[in-house]
Amino acid sequence: MAILQILDDSNDVLRKKCREVTEITPRILTLLDDMTETLHRANGAGLAAPQVGVLRRVVLVEAEPGQLYELINPEIVETRGEQCEVEGCLSLPHQWGTVKRPAWVKVKAQNRKGEWVFYEGEELLARAFCHEIDHLNGILFKDKAEHMMSAKEIEEYFSQD
Ligand code: CO
Q1: Domains identified in the chain, total number
Q2: Has 132 been annotated as catalytic?
Q3: CA distance 102 to 123
Q4: What is the CATH number of the domain that holds 124?
Q5: CB 135 within 8 A of CB 17
Q6: What distance in angstroms lies between residue 120's CA and the mean position of ligand 1's atoms?
Q7: Among residues 37, 132, 146, 153, which one is catalytic?
């Protein structure tokens, strides 16, 4: 496994639409493994392939430590409700903002065996699914943010806990 470099938004790659994975090759499996190691090292809740420079529809979500979702060709197939909470992104260090997302989502994706699976999530997990899948279409959370927090607001927010 290897730690990959996480690109920041000065890089155009983050704005590209990713291509579908048509065959789960050893290369895709290595990508999943390397992305997992990279995500853990960065202590994030999710990571999308374009963030490590790979324009393929592959994302990881780990909203709760130890609960890792590997999603290949993911799609949101159903949503319910609404939430508006604070988000950040490993590609946008020091930027935080509130984003409106569904309160609950159902996601369809392929696992590493190529099987189609469904996952449901609410709260942070729902937000992470939406945030990471947006990356595959070149969308960053700041594009959708209701409000981007000022340095003072960020400081206050993180000193709460
Ligand atoms: Co992100």
Answers
A1: 1
A2: yes
A3: 9
A4: 3.90.45.10
A5: no
A6: 20
A7: 132
